Protein 1
Amino acid sequence: MSINIPKNSDFSIHNIPFGIFSTKNTMPRVGVAIGEHIIDLSALANIYNFNFDNSVFKQSTLNSFIALGKSVTNKVRTDIQAWLKDDNSILNKHPKLFIKQADAKMHLPVKITDYTDFYSSIEHATNVGKMFRDPENALLPNWRHLPVGYHGRASSIRVSGTDFHRPKGQTLNANSSQPVFGASQKIDFELEMGFITNKNTAIGDTVTIDNAEDCIFGMVLLNDWSARDIQKWEYVPLGPFLGKNFITHISPWVVTLEALEYFRVQGPKQTPKVLPYLEYKGQKNYDISLSVTLTPQHNQEQVICNSNFKYMYWNMAQQLAHHTVNGCNISVGDLYGSGTISGKDKNSFGSMLELAWAGTKPLKINDGSERIFINDNDTITLRGYAEKDDIRVGFGEVSAKLLPTK
Ligand code: CA
C-alpha cells in the first residue's frame, strides 16, 4: 500500500466512508477517507472509467452518487478496498490521488432534503419524563408502541467545525407569567447519530421493516443543539421549534451500513410486543461506542459522557418503517436523527440536561469551574467508533464552539 494507515485509525480499510472535501482553490467533490488521507474520487474518475455516470464524483454533494443505489455504491467501496491491498492497482500507481486530510476542508456531505428527529432512547425519554413530569410514570403512554419523532429543520444543518452564536429567543422565567426576550441561558448538546436515505419513494408507498436497511446509505454523528429555556416555553402543544432549529451539526464522513455490518447486536427486548409492521427479525442494533467532550476556552478537553448506539430501544429499520407506514414519502438525502442516546449509568447520559440533572447536580470541570449547561466559548465534540477483533470502523468527530450572542 502506498500510504500508511495508523493503527487505531477510525478510517481503516474496513471503513471507506464517503464525504465531500475541497482543497485550496478547488471545488468541493467526492472523496473517501483512508487513514489520514482522502482518496480523490473525482480525480480517479478522470483516469478510470466506472461503469456509471462518473460525473457524480465531481458534484458538491453525495446525493447523485448515493441515488445510484447500494449495488453501485457498495461495489465502489469494495473495489477501493481491493485496490488498496494491491500494489499494482490504479490507486497505488497514482499517489497524487491521495490527499492529506490536514490539507482539506470538509463540507456537508449531502444536500439534506428533509430532517426528522426521533426520541428513541428509553433511558433518555425516562430521564426527561422523571425530571419534568411524573417519576412514577416517566414514559408517556405511546412511547413503547411507536418511535416518537418530530419534523426538524433541514436548512440549519451544518458540518462539524461550523461555530455558531448563542441564540436569542423568548423564555419564561421561574415564578413569572410574562415572557422575556434575550439570549438563551440554557444551551445544551444532544448526543445523537443520524442515518441518510438513498431512495425516493412516492406518496402512498411504505418502506417495510424488511426493506428499510436497503434504503439507508449510511450514518453520521449528530449534535442536536438545544436551547432548553426556549424549548420549555414553546413546546406545548406542537413540540420543538426555535429551541432546536438554530443549528444542528453532523460529522463529515458518511459511514456505510455495510461497514458496520460486523458490529450488529441484538437490541433491547421490547415490551409490550410491538404491532406487526414494527416486528423485526435478526440483529438491528449496532455496537458503536460514543463519547462527548467539553473543551473550555484555553483549557483542556475532558470527557463528560460515554454512551453507545446499541442502547437504542427503537432501531433504524423500525424508525423508517414507522415514518412511512402512513404513506409519507422519503427522498435521497433525508436525514433521520436517533434522538439523544443515553445509557443507564450517570456518565452515559447524552445531554447536559441529564448529566447535571436539570441544574441540580453541576458538572465539575478540570479548570475548577462548573457547568449545568454550555458556556460561551466552550467546544463540544462527539466521537464514535465500532471495534471488535482488531477491526475498527470510526466516524471521526463532530465538533463546534458556542460563541457569545451576536
Ligand atoms: Ca434530539
Protein 2
Amino acid sequence: MRLDKLIEKELTTSRKEMKRLFVRGKVKVDGKIERSEARNVDSRLHHIEVNGRTLSTSEAYYLLNKPQGVVTANHDHQHQTVLDLLSTNDRKEKLASVGRLDRDTEGLVFLTTNGQLAYELLHPVKKVTKCYEAVVNGEVTTEDIAAFQKGIVFHGGEICQPAQLEILSATAEESRVRLMIQEGKFHQVKKMFLACGKKVVFLKRYGIGPLMLPADLTIGRYRELTVDELESLKIYFC
Ligand code: URA
C-alpha cells in the first residue's frame, strides 16, 4: 500500500499534515527515514513507524489454480470468473489478478489488492518471467527452439523478445513443451506457436516471477501467499 495513503487512513491526517510528517522526518521504514510518499509498503515485510506509532497494512495476496472455462476478470455476464472461486470474505475490494490467462488456459493466477505491486510485476521493463507448459499439435523441433531464442515474429509483423523453449516430449502428432517468456502480449504463447505453424491444444501457467504454482493446490482452489512467498516479491515493492 502507498505510504501516504496508509498514513492518511490510519492516522486520519489531512494531505497537508501527512506531507508535513514526511518533511519533518517522522516517517520511518525499517528504522530509516523515508522521504518517498509513494513508497509501497506492507507491514508483513516492513516495519512502518510514523511519529513513533507502528502502522499495519491489510493487503490481500492469493495464489489460485485457475481451471479451464473460468475467465480472468472481475465480472462476466456469461462465465464464472476467478473472483467467483473465492469465498465472499476473501473477495476484498480492489482485488484484481496480475495479468490474464485465456479462458481455456489453466494454472497460476496471482490476485492482490496491492495495485502498485501488480503494476510493477506487469511493467515490461521489469521483465518478470512467466513459465508455461503446453501441448502443441505437431512436432516441436530444435529449429523452433532457435526461433523462440531469436525472437518470434507474429503473423502481422509484431516482434517478440527472446523466449526459452524446452521440449519435454515430441512425436509427429504432438509435443509437450515448457517455455518461459518475459512479456504478456495478448494470446502470446498461442500466437508464438502459430508463427511456427503449430497449434497449442493445452496451456498451463505454473510460474510468475518467483511465485510457483504450489503442487498441492488442486484446480479451482486458492490460498493466501506465505510470508516466504511475499518476501520473494520484496524487490518489487518500491
Ligand atoms: N499466452 C496465451 O496464448 N494464452 C494465455 O492464456 C497465456 C499466455
Protein 3
Amino acid sequence: MAAHPGALLTTDEITAVVDLLKQQGKVGDDTTFRRVSPAHPNGFDDRRIEAWLYHAGSKEIEELVVSLTDESIVTERTVTGQIPQFAFGEVGAAQEVVRSSPLVAEALAKRGIDDPSKVQVDTWPTGNMGHEHEKGRRVTRCIMFWRDDVADNGYAKPIDGLMAFVDLDEMEVYHLDDIGNWPVATETNNYHHGTVPDRDDLKTIDITQPDGPSFTVTDGNLITWGNWDVRAVMDHTEGIVLQSLAWTDQGTRRPIMRRASVAEMVVPYGETRASQAFKNALDIGEVALGRTVNSLTLGCDCLGDITYLDSAWCFDDGTPIHVDQAICIHEEDFGILWKHTDSHSGTTDVRRSRRLVISSIFTVGNYDYGIFWYLYLDGTIQLEIKLTGIVTTQAHGPDDSLTYATLVGPEVAAPIHQHLFCARFDMEVDGPDNTAYRVDIEVDDPGPDNPFDNAFRAVPTRLETEQQATDVVDAAKARTWRVINEAKTNRLGQPTGYKLLPADTATLFPFRARIAGRAGFAMKNLWVTPTSNDERFPAGDHVTQSEPNNQGLPTWTQADRPIADTDITVWHVFGLTHSARPEDFPVMPTEYARCTWVPFGFFDKNPALDIPPGSHCH
Ligand code: CO
C-alpha cells in the first residue's frame, strides 16, 4: 500500500520510483537523478513523488511526477537550455580533479605550495558572471585553502587569487584564473575541542520531562501537540517543510497553512576583488538542502526529551541514502506566556509559555543553517533560521583595502555579504480561499477629527493583484501584512486571520549586479501569488548558472493576476546582512533570522486561558 500523500520519503519509495522509471525507459547510461522528493500536496490524494533526471548526452532535464499508488508516471516535462544542480558525486570528483591537475599544481608551485593533498578545494557554483568560456558548459569554480593536516581549518589559510574551472560533463579543469599571489596566512585558527583549555565553571543543565513530552507522533510524521497538528517532511531541495498545519478549536480542525517552507536563499557578496566578487550563491536551488541534512545527536544538537524522524534522499545514480535522526522534535520552556499582578486584589496570575520545536540542520560548504519551526500555545507560528559555521575568507596583505571586508585574523579577512531567505507559505486560513492585506500605521493630519493631534491608526489595504502585493518592510509605518478568510468570522464578526510580523530586514543590496537578475525575489520582502504547483521556487526551478533574466517570482507576478479571495501563497524574504565580526572567527556563534505569524482575530480571545499554572508555581 502506498504511503500517505504527506509522508516522509523512504529508501523503499526511492527504490520504487527509480525502478519504475527504469522500467519505463526513462533512465539511460548517461542519466543521473537530481531531485527525488514528495510532490506538493495540492489537488490529489495519491502518493506522488517528483523526480528530476539529467541526461548528460542531450543536456536535457526531465521533470517527472510518479504516482506510487497507481505505479505510473503522472506528468512529464522536458526542459532544455537550463543547467541542473550539481550531482552529489560530481562535487567530490571535481575536488580530486583539481588536486590532480598539472595546471593547478604549477600555479600552486609558484606560491611555494608543493603538496596538493593538503589543499582544500571548495566547489562553488560559478555564479554566471557572463564569461564566454562558461557558455554551454556545466561549471564549478573551485577555490582553494591550505590545511596543515586533515582537521585543520582551511578557512584560516585561503589560497587567494587562484580559481580552477571544472567542466562537470568532461570532468576536467578547462580554465584557470590566476589573478594575484597573496601570501597564505600562517596563523592556525582551529576550533575543535582541545584547541583551547576547557573552562570549568559551567554546571550541568538537564532538561527532564518525567511524564514524557506532550506531543505525539503517529502515522510516521503526523505530529500532534495541544491544539496543533502538522506533518513534517523533508524536501530534496528545500529541506524541512511543514505540511497541513492546523489548530483544533473545540473539536473543529481549522487549517492555517497547507505547506510552509524555505524555498530559496541568496548569499551575495560585496567584495570587489575578482577572486571574491563572483560569490553569490543560491544555497537552496543550487545545493539542495535535503541531501545536506545532518544526522542529529542527542544532547548536542537537541537537548531534552527528543523524538527524531529519519529522512532519505536519492544519490545521483539512484541509490537511496538513509539519514538517521534528520528531524528533531521537542518541547522548550519559553518563559512567560502571560502574567498579571492585580494590585487591587493582591492576586498574581502567571502561566508558562512553551513551544514545540521541529527542526533540522543543513551544512552547505563552509556554512551551517538550522531551520527551526516553532509552534506556540497562543497560536503563534515562527520560522527561525540559525546561521553558524565558518565565514568564507580572503587573504589580506598589507596593501589590501578593507572597504568591503573585515579583518578576522592577522592575514585573513571576511567579505561583507547577505543571507536572504525566501519563505513560501501556501496559506489556507480556515479554508483555501484567503485574502492578503497590507497594514500600515498612519498619522492623521490636524483637523476637526483630530482635535488633540494624537490620532494614528492602522490602515489596512486589500491587496487585489500581484503587483499591489509586491512590497517591502517599512519600519517607519510599522508595516505588517495580514491574511484573512473573508468568509469566516469570529464571535465579534471580524474575519479570521493571521498577521505576518517581519523582522528588520533589508532587500538585496547589489541590485545592479547580475545576481539581482538571478535572484530577483530578494529585491522585495513580500510577494503574493495565486497558489500553483508550477510556482514553487522563487528564482526558478533550475537556478544553477541561470541567466539574469528574472525567472521565478519577478516574471510570474508580471501577469498581475488577481489574488483576493482565492488560494494564495505568501512569499516572505528576510535575513541578515553580515558585516563579519572578529568574533565570527574561526567559527561563528549562531546568528538568528526569523519571521512570525500571529493569530489576528483567528480566535475569539486569548486562546491560552486554559493553560494551568505550572506545577512548580506556588
Ligand atoms: Co554570513
